[in-house]
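Quick board copy: two proteins, each given as sequence then tokens.
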Amino acid sequence: MIGRAGRPQFDDQGVAVVLVHDLKKKFYNKFLYEPFPVESRYYGLEKVEPKLMSSFLSNLVSKSVRTLQDSYCLEVDSDERTLISTAVGKIASFYYLSHETMRLLYDQLSVDASIEKILYLLTQVKEYSELPVRHNEDLING
């Protein structure tokens, strides 16, 4: 298991130590130092032709841009080519928040929101669904 601690805005390096038994040393050396084969796919494409791939990727980018616009994270400049990060998008990027979280907070949070409303909204954000619970705690709270 290798994890990362620290503050990404200040640290640009990390150290990992791998401890293994001699029997597994060769396997882990190969795992760490040899590249994995690339198995990329364009899902949903019957044939991998340049025209189809271009269309697929264009649609994917357009859909992603629309999603970020709908979440108030991104604006498209009048030239229709320049993408501009909004304040909401910059906050999401800085704090590693999903665009779904930003949309929820932007749509639901108001200046005069009560503490109860703020706490409720915080319990609804996507990031908390990814946190593990302690043993059997999900049975109590579920």
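And the next:
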Amino acid sequence: MTGSRRYDMSRLVLDVVEALAHWRRQKCLLVGHDWGGMVAWHLAAAHPEVGGARPGWSDVD
């Protein structure tokens, strides 16, 4: 994939899931700001088994 398509939200969430698997972690508390906050929200919604999200510093449109 090239260009802005690489920044699809589902891809960013999958990046976090893959990073957790790489580090052999099943759960996390993801704190995000700005775009990271949006990723944290989407991760919590799509993968509740991973843990919680505290993206309190993000603007939500």
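Board note added afterward: The longest strand covers residues 28-30.
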